[in-house]
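Please decode residue identities from the backbone states below.
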């Protein structure tokens, strides 16, 4: 097992590249696995050889980047897939539609690679499932004890309340969220708990459609459609857009963000702690449930999380950042 801008698993017969960010180091005849459609995980879709992800991940990738992935075989959640001398199983990751963890059973050991995970159910995803494994390679985006999110239902209620208050003041509530995953969860939230029309940045249209095709009912109007423009002009509504969009209608918009980082923004902007990632407590419970012999952590608060795991669970962990381009197992 090695880490070069992504996880590489090598056996006698097989090389698997999991979420490689570039194609530079992928050997010929390797297989690429892509965990989900966020841009920092999809570099492997540019590889010419055979690639795997869920169908929804490929659909959303296409909707976001207009890139058709060829030489592709879809993986289904909870179905085993044999590649040479090993077996790969995609498990729910709970992070966005189509997101998967990969449990790889090689002749030597079982390895669980999480990609990005969220361990509770949302309006659009099922919680990440832990799996017993020998080696666990996991994200720790919010692996610091300062990140403990309130119950999701509480955050949902706060967002709806804020939107209704904003409308009462004669303004349009505008929520800035990631275009893939979070945006669709928020559209679904307003569809389910209000009768407000939901207008979205046209960039979200394709990703919303991909959700619809996967059976997640979403109702929205594109801001570029005639209906969308009319509603924005004169009716109460909610506007959902990307983090950087500065679209505005005179002085009539109030902005808010929905992100786990809300807990550390110190009230400088209106922000709701709605995250697509596991918080600190979820990450600790996840490690306990997987009960790995060896644990490797990547992204975020890897160092904080490593210390916390030692203190709370008496387990040793390694952060991947300190092992870049070296063999993980040998360095453990
Ligand atoms: Zn992600």
């Amino acid at each position: 097992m090695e880490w070069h801008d992504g996880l590489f698993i090598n056996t006698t017969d097989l090389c698997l590249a999991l979420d490689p960010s570039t194609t530079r180091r992928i050997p010929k005849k390797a297989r690429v696995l892509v965990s989900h459609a966020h841009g920092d995980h999809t570099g492997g879709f540019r590889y010419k050889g055979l690639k795997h992800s869920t169908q929804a991940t490929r659909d959303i990738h296409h909707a976001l980047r207009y890139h058709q992935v060829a030489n592709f075989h879809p993986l289904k959640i909870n179905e085993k897939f044999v590649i040479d001398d090993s077996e790969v199983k995609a498990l729910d990751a709970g992070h966005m539609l189509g997101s998967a963890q990969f449990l790889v059973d090689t002749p030597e050991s079982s390895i669980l690679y999480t990609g990005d995970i969220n361990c509770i159910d949302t309006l659009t995803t099922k919680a990440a499932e832990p799996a017993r494994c020998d080696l666990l390679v996991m994200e720790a985006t919010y692996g610091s004890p300062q990140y403990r999110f309130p119950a999701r239902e509480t955050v949902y209620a706060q967002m709806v309340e804020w939107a209704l208050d904003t409308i009462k003041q004669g303004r349009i509530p505008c929520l800035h969220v990631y275009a893939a995953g979070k945006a669709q969860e928020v559209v679904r939230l307003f569809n389910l708990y209000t009768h407000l029309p939901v207008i979205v940045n046209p960039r979200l249209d394709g990703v919303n459609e991909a959700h619809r095709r996967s059976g997640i009912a979403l109702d929205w109007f594109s801001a570029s459609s005639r209906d969308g423009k009319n509603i924005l002009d004169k009716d109460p509504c909610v506007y959902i857009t990307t983090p950087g969009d500065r679209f505005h209608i005179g002085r009539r918009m109030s902005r808010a963000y929905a992100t786990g980082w809300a807990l550390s923004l110190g009230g400088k902007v209106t922000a709701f702690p709605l995250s697509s990632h596991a918080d600190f407590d979820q990450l600790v419970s996840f490690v306990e449930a997987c009960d790995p012999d060896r644990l490797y952590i990547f992204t975020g608060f890897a160092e904080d999380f490593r210390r916390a795991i030692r203190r709370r669970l008496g387990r040793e962990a390694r952060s991947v950042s300190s092992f870049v381009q070296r063999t993980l197992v040998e360095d453990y």
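Observation: DSSP finds eight helices and 19 strands in the chain.
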